[in-house]
Structures
1.
Amino acid sequence: IDPGHGGHDLGGHYGKVYEKHLALDTAMRLEHYLKTSGYRTVMTRRSDTFISLPKRASIGNSYSNSIFVSIHYNYTWKRHVSGFETFYHSSRSRPLAEYIHYAMLKRVRAANRGVKYARYYVIRNARNPAVLVECGFLSNSHERERVKQGSFRDGVAHGIAEGIARYQSARR
């Protein structure tokens, strides 16, 4: 589990709402759900520390037969944009992205911005199935108020965990 940003890398932010804090909180909630379901987990960070992109990818690659989930919150200058996006790089990561994306949308009502191909460093350099999840836009005032609520982040984490479970069931 890779909580995006950290340390001096704030990620997207609006006022005192920082992506790095939201991503870490969501990741910790995800870890709880996965461990409760019997999964072994590894976090790229557990506190507000900076971890380089190569180090994040390396942590993920050091575990064979694993999956890599990078958690982020989005930001754009277009204030009306909202919703969830899930990114993959390799074709073998696409099913993981789809399971996670639609399970999140089932748990939390949000605009569906789709499952998309992207070249983000951490998923491009992953040897295992890997996705990068954007859990809402901090630049959208309505969505920002929602992501500040623990119940919203909990729903997102629960959805990601359910998507991972469905993905693992389909692989068997």
Note: Strands lie at 2-3, 13-14, 17-18, 68-74, 84-88, 112-117, 130-137.
2.
Amino acid sequence: MIVQRGSFGAIAAVLVALVFLLSGITKVARPSLWRSEAAGMGVHRFLVPFVPWVEVVLGALLVAQVQRHIVAWFAVGLLVAFTAIIALRLSQGSHPPCACFGALSAKPIASGNLVRNAVFVAVAVAAALL
């Protein structure tokens, strides 16, 4: 059986979608916790209400394979922005709770978060290119 290149891209898109859906839904489910953790991470308060919904919409579009290549590039951009925030906080010696997955990620940020995000970025790039 030969697997087409586009199939790998579609699978990668679904994997990234699951990450974004989980992340967004857990933030929407506990908005006060998300606001608190976002403040600790230094997310601008103007952006705080929108981040979970952007994650949910990106996740839904990726699951549905709607304009997958374009949406996946937006996912890459958002993941890079999240990674940059984590890297900045770590470089400042700050280790606030990771606001990444709402109540599921209450541990302080560490270098492992950068590695995890690098994997997510790689999968999102695969979704965009394949």
Note: DSSP finds five helices and no strands in the chain.
3.
Amino acid sequence: MSELEGKAALVTGASRGIGAATARELAKRGVGVVLAARSLDEIEAVAAEIRVAGGRAEAVACDVGRYDHVMAAVTRCQEAFGRLDILINNAGVIEPIGRLADSDPEQWGRATDINFKGAYHGLRAAIPVMVGQGGGVIVNLSSGAAVRAMEGWSQYCAAKAAVLSLTRSADLEYRDQGIRVVGLSPG
């Protein structure tokens, strides 16, 4: 029996890539998973695949740039599985790529809403639930770009550096209440 058996997780950006793979792996280990992404059709397909394989999965449309959407996903996890033990803050976008003087402020702002504020929204929505339960784990996906600037990637590098700092702050603030907040920088 897995030590994760019976736990419940919310995975953002779960329609493909790391998010979908993480949701599948958690479900294999007995975790009830809520998959969240903007593309409902894609996450419903992944959730259906998990259920066919014997796992427990729900899908919810969620724009992490909007706190109300993230709060609704947390609520859905509680309704479906009775709790929220794990949050995987995975949602992110690469675009816009381009030099600063050529960048579009609207695109930059939208990417910031997803790449940085999305992680904050996840933390803000999940922490009170986890404190009430006596603990939990939050994994924020960052990147090597957080500590290594790349030409044309100013938004992504800055946002991932902010997520790295936010992760450290959240862990410091809540580890004494049983919440582990850790960062993962794939690649």
Note: The beta strands are 8-12, 32-37, 57-61, 86-89, 136-141, 179-184.
